[in-house]
Amino acid sequence: MRARSPYAQAAQLSTELRRAADRLESHADGIVSRHSFAFGPHYDPTNTRLGVLVTHNDDVLAPGAGFSEHPHRDLEIVTWVVSGALQHEDSAGGSAIVRPGMVGRLSAGAGVRHRETNASSGETRYLQMWLLPDDEGLPSYATADVSALLEIGEFVAVASGSEPAAVTLRCNATLFVARLAAAGATATIPASALLHVFVARGSVSMAIDGEKMQLLSEDAVRLTDAIDVRVVATSDAEILAWALG
């Protein structure tokens, strides 16, 4: 066995807890958006990204509300609906209604226009996450229903550019989702150099390399060089975890 260099340094765990109430908000007609990263007029040079993840918005649309057609380019846009239903339409021919248990992915490529509207009779809440791609390519859109996979109560890869997943990304990032249906249910997040963990609903207790913390609905934590990350539900919960290269 080769001896470890005396100059080698162990990776240092870093945790950054971000409470739901600390997010900045944007308001439009029938739309409330809460931003985990700097977005639009809410610019903060210290909070622009984590790895290739540059946007993590929590949007609520009133009945009949939505975002009119607008352009994007050079982005991988991943959508996860928490409640209600979201109608997606784009200029490359992509069209779908995304519901809870489904993942949507728009590769903007060299440029695409799209619109998103509430397709339900009540409020629709969804998470939209933007990532920087490794290459441009042509615009494309894909959805997948992962409801059955989530019934196992473990973290499931639903979108990835580095391992098998329901939809493919053009970057080295993986979105894992877990539904923990009862208090006490436990799941382990696959290790990654960078992790962004977000509680979409419910509440959980987390053990991060032995360090414990409580996360409530819409809280997030950013982790660097965590080795062992375990989540224990303290109520029915849905958790999204981005592993970022």
Q: What's the gist of this structure?
A:
It contains 1 helix and 22 strands.
Task: Describe the 3D structure.
- By secondary structure, the protein is mainly beta.
- The protein has a single domain, classed as Jelly Rolls (Sandwich), CATH 2.60.120.
- It contains 1 helix and 22 strands.
- It has a 7-stranded mixed β-sheet, with no helix packed on it.
- The two termini are 28 Å apart.
- The N terminus is likely disordered.
Helix and strand topology:
Blueprint: E1 14-18, E2 24-28, E3 31-35, E4 53-61, E5 66-72, E6 76-83, E7 86-90, E8 95-98, E9 102-107, E10 112-118, E11 124-131, E12 140-145, H1 147-150, E13 156-160, E14 167-168, E15 174-180, E16 186-189, E17 192-201, E18 204-208, E19 211-215, E20 220-226, E21 229-233, E22 237-243
